[in-house]
Amino acid sequence: MITSVKEFEKDVCKLFKKSKIETYSTLDIQGNKIQKPINIQDNWFSAQRDTMDSKLFFTFTSKELIDDILKEVETYNKEKASNNPVKAIVMNVEKHV
To answer: CB of 86 within 8 A of CB of 77?
Structure first.
């Protein structure tokens, strides 16, 4: 499972292609980040919420291909300095139909 800000969508699709993952799904999601102001007078409320248009990508594939895309995401994040790095996680599927 991979999440990114929407502006990185094409880049993430290229990472899938580089990793030879040919089938994956995407969803539009709304990312939220709650930031506490340094000075409470800067904001009437105790925290400010920033929202970002984001993407969720997911695939079911082999461990080898997952290892490849995780390396690609890590490299991408190192090369592209951003406050919103691409995030990737692996979740095991214990049962399926």
So the answer is: yes
Q: Is residue 94 part of a domain?
A: no
Alpha carbons 34 and 95: distance in angstroms, whole number: 35
- 46-68 pLDDT per residue, tens: 556 678 899 999 999 999 999 99
The tokens for 67 are 């290892």
Element (H, E) at 51: strand 48-58
Residue 11 sits in which domain range? 2-88
Neighbours of 7 (CB within 10 A): 13
Whole-structure pTM value:
0.80
Between CA 88 and CA 5, with CA 15 as vertex, the angle to 5 degrees is: 55
- Mapped onto helix, strand or coil, the DSSP state of residue 26 is strand
Please give the structure tokens belonging to residue 12. Answer: 């993430």
What is the count of structural domains for the chain?
A: 1
